[in-house]
């Protein structure tokens, strides 16, 4: 039995941070509506909060590797705690202007993304360290996150109703601080959590090369690219729902912030049930079938129900059922991503994935606010729900989703089981297909045999590897590349959670 403390500490830190984020998710839009009365301003704050998330994800992958995942997670939570705490403190001092609120939410968004990514990409190594399987760890990671979201949402509704949005924000700041302490104390002795030894001195050229490497891996895998595009539209409309549409609907029809907390908690409770169910029995069913059904049911129905009803019960039932369906999605996506991305690229590719998955979030909140003020809440709900529904039809339309059930050969359930170091490095860096790798190994074996028969050492290992690396580079330039090691071979497509978040609703 392995050491489970680092995995437990990371899960606890992530759940506490997620619960606190739920407080902000509900507290900030309500705070803006209370203080300004403008859905448009609520949408603009959401835009300011989410645009830096995308920017941080776009450029942050190599930084996480060089600084170290543990350090990044701690620093991220510390900055977020300071930014969120400043909002109510400045408000109490009667000096909080609207532009200050926008800046503080932007700082929170920019700092929050690297911490989320750092915790997320550690899960495979922590699972191996704890002696558990990757699918089980991924399901547990999503389940505790959704459970925390449920608790945070319910607590937010009660706190806002009885103590005000400012109290909810102060509690969120405290959760960030506690998350930082848990990572600092509990995640020790994990090699993958520490800074990577740089293969080259830090420079803009090296940084750009590392950044491109992550995006090249993503763009070279059609399934990952399809996931990103679909989740991008889902997350954009979700942002409009939580930042503008649900608060406006609750204020006008459902009786206020308590209803928001109840509905969000119902969705979180359903998500917890769905994640646990998939963790228990999901391996018995086809990933693609389960994912296709659940992704259609998880989001679009709530927009329609909110548009045609003005009571809480139908929407609460819809949110609960949608949460159950949504709870199944992230364990599938998380496992697929971990399987198809080698460890040395995980931070860079996860940054690219997050940037793509959250690319539409700034526009989602802004568009929802403008739609409400220009066309009314009902029209906004129907339009954004329609976009959500069309996005979820992707697994039925695009052929790349057919590979969702394919298990890559080179990436197994435990981190690090990817063959010998030389094979892993050569396959990962050269991007060879299985057939190309076998041909190369056969050629090398033949050359070694000829050298043995002749009584000569032949090429030195260094010379052979240099020539092979050059050949691999020429093959890449000629377009003779494929997906990540062991994944199905598909042509590259030029076009990125998360949910995940990491990718996923």
Q: What distinguishing features does this structure have?
A:
mainly alpha; 505 residues; 77% helix; single chain; globular; disordered C terminus; 19 helices
Q: What can you tell me about this protein's structure?
A:
The protein contains 19 helices and no strands. The relative contact order is 0.14. By secondary structure, it is an all-alpha fold. The longest helix is centred in the N-terminal third of the chain and has 33 residues, at 98-130. The model is unreliable at 409-505 (pLDDT under 50). The radius of gyration is 24 Å and the shape is globular. Helix 1 packs antiparallel against helix 2, helix 2 runs antiparallel to helix 14 and helix 3 (69-92) runs antiparallel to helix 6 (165-186).
Name the beta content range: under 5%
Content-based structural category: mainly alpha
Q: Give the C-alpha Rg.
A: 24 Å
Q: What percent of residues adopt helix (DSSP H or I)? A: over 70%
The main sheet comes to: none
Kindly report the average pLDDT value. Answer: 74
Helix count, DSSP H or I runs of 4 or more residues:
19
- Which descriptor suits the 3D outline? globular
Quantity of strands, as a count? 0
Uncertain spans? 409-505
Topology:
Layout: H1 5-36, H2 39-67, H3 69-92, H4 98-130, H5 134-163, H6 165-186, H7 204-219, H8 222-254, H9 257-281, H10 287-298, H11 300-308, H12 312-340, H13 346-357, H14 361-375, H15 377-392, H16 394-397, H17 421-430, H18 434-453, H19 461-477
Give a brief description.
This protein is mainly α and 505 residues long.
């Amino acid at each position: 039995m392995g050491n489970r403390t680092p995995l437990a500490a990371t899960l606890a830190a992530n759940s506490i941070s997620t619960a606190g984020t739920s407080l902000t998710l509900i507290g900030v839009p309500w705070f803006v509506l209370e203080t300004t009365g403008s859905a448009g301003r609520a949408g603009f704050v959401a835009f300011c909060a989410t645009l830096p998330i995308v920017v941080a994800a776009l450029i942050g992958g190599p930084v996480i590797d060089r600084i170290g995942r543990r350090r990044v997670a701690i620093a991220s939570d510390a900055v977020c705690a300071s930014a969120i705490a400043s909002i109510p403190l400045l408000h109490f001092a009667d000096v909080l202007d609207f532009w200050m609120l926008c800046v503080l939410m932007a700082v929170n968004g920019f700092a929050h993304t690297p911490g989320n990514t750092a915790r997320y990409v550690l899960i495979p190594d922590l699972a191996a360290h704890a002696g558990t399987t990757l699918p089980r760890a991924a399901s547990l990671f999503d389940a505790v996150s959704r459970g925390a979201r449920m608790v945070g949402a319910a607590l937010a509704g009660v706190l806002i109703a009885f103590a005000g949005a400012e109290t909810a924000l102060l509690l969120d700041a405290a959760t960030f601080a506690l998350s930082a302490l848990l990572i600092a104390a509990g995640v020790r002795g994990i090699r993958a959590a520490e800074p990577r030894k740089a293969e080259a001195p830090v420079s803009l050229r090296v940084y750009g090369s590392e950044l491109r490497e992550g995006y090249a891996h993503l763009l070279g895998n059609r399934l990952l690219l399809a996931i990103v595009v679909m989740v991008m539209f889902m997350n954009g409309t979700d942002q409009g729902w939580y930042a503008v549409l649900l608060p406006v609907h609750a204020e006008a029809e459902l009786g206020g912030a308590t209803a928001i907390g109840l509905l969000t908690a119902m969705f979180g409770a359903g998500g917890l049930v769905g994640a646990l169910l998939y963790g228990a029995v999901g391996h018995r069913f086809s990933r693609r079938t389960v994912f296709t059904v659940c992704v259609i049911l998880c989001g679009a129905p709530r927009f329609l129900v909110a548009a045609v009803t003005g009571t809480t019960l139908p929407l609460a039932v819809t949110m609960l059922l949608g949460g159950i369906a949504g709870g199944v999605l992230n364990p599938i996506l998380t496992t697929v991503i971990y399987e198809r991305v080698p460890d040395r690229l995980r931070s860079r590719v996860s940054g690219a994935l997050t940037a793509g998955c959250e690319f539409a979030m700034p526009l989602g909140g802004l568009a929802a606010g403008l739609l409400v003020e220009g066309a009314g809440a009902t029209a906004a709900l129907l339009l954004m729900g329609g976009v959500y529904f069309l996005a979820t039809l992707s697994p039925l339309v695009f052929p790349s989703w057919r590979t969702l059930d394919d298990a890559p050969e080179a990436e197994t359930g435990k981190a690090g089981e990817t063959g010998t170091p030389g094979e892993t490095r050569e396959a990962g860096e050269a991007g060879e297909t299985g057939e190309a790798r076998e041909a190369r190994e056969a050629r090398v074996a033949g050359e070694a045999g000829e050298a043995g028969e002749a009584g000569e050492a032949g090429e030195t290992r260094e010379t052979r590897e240099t020539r092979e690396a050059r050949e691999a580079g020429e093959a890449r330039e000629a377009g003779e590349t494929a997906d990540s090691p062991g994944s199905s071979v598909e042509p590259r497509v030029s076009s990125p959670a998360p949910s995940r978040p990491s990718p996923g609703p």
